[in-house]
Amino acid sequence: MRLTRYFLPILRENPAEAQITSHRLMLRAGMIRQAQAGIYSWLPLGFKVLSRLEQIVHEEQQRAGHIPLLMPTLQSADLWRESGRYDDYGAEMLRIKDRHQRDMLYGPTNEELITDIFRSSVGSYKDLPLTLYHIQWKFRDEVRPRFGVMRGREFLMKDGYNFDLTVEDAIHAYNRHMVTYIRTYERMGLKAIPMKADTGPIGGDHSHEFLVLAPTGESGVFYDRAITDLTLGDRDIDFTDRGAVSEIVETWTTPYARTDERHDADEFAKIPEDRRIEGRGIEVGQIFFFGTKYSEPMKAVVVNEAGERVPVQMGSHGIGVSRLVGAIIEASHDDKGIIWPEGVTPFGAGIVNLRQGDAATDAACESLYADLTKAGVDPLYDDRDERAGAKFATMDLIGLPWRVTVGPRGLAAGKVELTSRRTGESEELSPEAAVARLREIYANR
Ligand SMILES: Nc1ncnc2c1ncn2[C@@H]1O[C@H](COP(=O)(O)OP(=O)(O)O)[C@@H](O)[C@H]1O
Ligand SMILES: [Mg+2]
């Protein structure tokens, strides 16, 4: 993409309505625009990051054998009456009537709808296990939408639902989700810690929330420092191997880590003092096992091996995809702007032309642009007729992890400059070497 052809409405001033860094930077970098309180349009740069997060979520879910589908945003109130949640959900649910005065709602979550899909077509244990998921917009009429996309009213969520014959099978599904989530957040450059959680309106027996550490987080968190040393990396995981999957879950859930709602001061006090950390965190996902809470009232049953009809065992698992864009920025920025982790960056590198209009510099930028595109780096070329300072400020604000600076002086020596946004360190190298380096960096993104 060339900046002169792109749509990147950058704000020079700090928007007054933004209370936290990520909201301010998303507005300033032209990523989002508020349409109504808690409802945002995703402008091209923001949409690119959001789409990238969706892609990572899809890849990690499908790696574990979970199957994508797409359910609608508008749902029938009758289904929610069957589970009893139509009245329970309260004012957060946006209730709508169609022209026939039928009660509908904008889905805040999809347990009822997915259970209805399941019961209409699955009847035998032979069709299990089954995990279906989608990434779809949700609406919750939050009393105080705030912090931009972090607590919106309309927001994008990945929600997945497992259907299993036995409690043990459903616990395996729960464990699979925990492992896929850990890897998903790692690929996004985040450290998200699973913490024992309350189950809230979803209900059920078991739940973990995933929290990204950040001082602006809405939840108080207490944890053993040891947990922040754990990484999953890109090791091969056989998701059908229950032992292997539950061993990873064991490792990640053994150190103390709880949100304020579940905090136990006595347990916490047993950790060596230098490892006891109190802080704040942003909830970026939550998993639940709730057994037959929906399958029983909604009669989602299967016939087991003995020929008996039993309600299916279920769980649901959510990732706050749009909230994650804000959470990543909260975790990765400096006073000049965003610093995208390579895994989620909207463009792999920026090209800054220091002398726009100079034939040799323009030609070098053009060929770099073509070569980086061919190498799969997806560059953003700042081809505006602007001062170098303004171009650098734009690149720093939008946070691309790498910048290639091209100017007549360097070119005379056959060099361009490659700069890391994170460390600020620069290196002079040939354009070919810069392309090779960036190709390598993004090779297995
Ligand atoms: N109002 C919101 N705005 C943005 N993301 C949200 C919002 N509410 C929930 N999410 C995201 O969706 C994920 C799954 O939702 P869930 O756990 O059901 O919500 P909650 O914790 O609010 O009950 C949450 O972990 C969070 O990341
Ligand atoms: Mg939650």
TrEMBL record:
Coiled-coil intervals, chain numbering: none
Keyword presence, ATP-binding: yes
Organism annotation: Amaricoccus macauensis
Catalytic activity: tRNA(Pro) + L-proline + ATP = L-prolyl-tRNA(Pro) + AMP + diphosphate
Protein family according to the UniProt entry: Belongs to the class-II aminoacyl-tRNA synthetase family. ProS type 2 subfamily.
EC code(s) of this entry: 6.1.1.15
Chief location category: cytoplasm
Protein name: Proline--tRNA ligase
